[in-house]
Amino acid sequence: MAKNFAPRVSKKERKTVSLADRLDHDIFKISDDKLLKGAKLEEVSLKNINVKEQVRTKFDDKSLKDLAENIKANGLIQPLVVHRENGLLTLICGERRYRAMTSIDMKKAPCFILDDKSDEELMAIQFSENSSREELHYIDKADGIYAYKKSTDASERKIQAALGISKSEVHRSILLGKLPKELREAAKVFDIEKYVLLEFGALEEGPMQKMIFEKIKNGEIRKRTELRKLLKGTVVPGRVKGVSKKTVKKKSAPSANEFIKAMREKTKDLNLDKDMKDLLKTLVKDAKTEIKKTSKKATHPND
């Protein structure tokens, strides 16, 4: 059976509708219940929204431009989330959408307005909303988790429950959050793999760590394989924390008999006159005699 589609409407005939009037909370059932609990949906003037530092710190200009064009053509689908305190509205979630709208001179936007939320609750809401988006860099995500830990002094298990993420992710994020700012910024600028920073953080202090720090900071090491190749090919004065030193098998020096055997083989390949060959044979014979004497003394020291 053929499907029936609504007739096409030209741009001139399309009507502009207020999303604030049309949006229903049922549309956002996939959102975190904590985020929407007690929130009021209102249309807010963008100039009245105060924007503080957000979880996301890396923005792609092209993706922002694409988002702005999309909002301009279709309107804002996902409202911003703001917190109202003492009459002031502070942006909690949606800085990327906010930037896109201000770039096309939009005046108002639908917003979920939250009241009477603690700093801990707002951080959890902000992290939950932002981390669900693929564009969020792992460093921004780690900084958000580490900031939550510093603010709440919560254990990793409590952070796991509050933010709805795995304990291993909490642990790794805290390790990343503790790294020097230069490395965290370099990770975003040079698109450095997460495990490069994690394995750097496990190195003991020393010349090797300082050298690797500079290489990561300058974008010379971006992949885990590059770091491991460097560590494998260099004598590392400081070993990795928590990892036992592996016994390095040193190539033993050749035995006396092996040395004599090698001398005999080598003399075969040399173009020597008869006198030189006789001299070498005598030296080999004398060396063999001395080896036997030394071996006998070692075996029977009291003889």
List the helices and strands and how they pair.
Blueprint: H1 19-22, H2 33-36, E1 40-45, E2 49-50, H3 61-74, E3 80-85, E4 88-93, H4 95-103, E5 108-115, H5 119-131, H6 138-152, H7 156-163, H8 167-177, H9 181-189, H10 194-201, H11 207-217, H12 224-232, H13 256-269, H14 274-299
Parallel strand pairs: 2-4, 3-5
Antiparallel strand pairs: 1-5, 3-4
Helix pairs in contact: 3-4, 5-6, 6-8, 13-14
Superfamily at the CATH H level of the largest domain?
Conserved hypothetical protein from pyrococcus furiosus pfu- 392566-001, ParB domain
Using the coordinates shown, work out and report the CATH topology of the largest domain: Conserved hypothetical protein from pyrococcus furiosus pfu- 392566-001, ParB domain
**Fraction of helical residues:** 40-55%
Number of domains: 3
Molecular shape? elongated
Give a count of the beta strands, DSSP E runs of length 2 or more.
5
Low-pLDDT segments, ≥5 res: 16-32, 235-240
Order of strands, main sheet, comes to 1-5-3-4-2
Per CATH, which architecture of the largest domain? Alpha-Beta Complex
Element-level helix/strand string: HHEEHEEHEHHHHHHHHHH
Sheet/helix structural class = alpha/beta
Number of helices: 14
Largest sheet data:
5 strands, mixed
From the alpha-carbon coordinates, what is the Rg to the nearest angstrom? 35 Å
How far the N terminus sits from the C terminus, by CA atoms, comes to 110 Å
Strand content: 5-15%
Mean pLDDT over the residues: 77
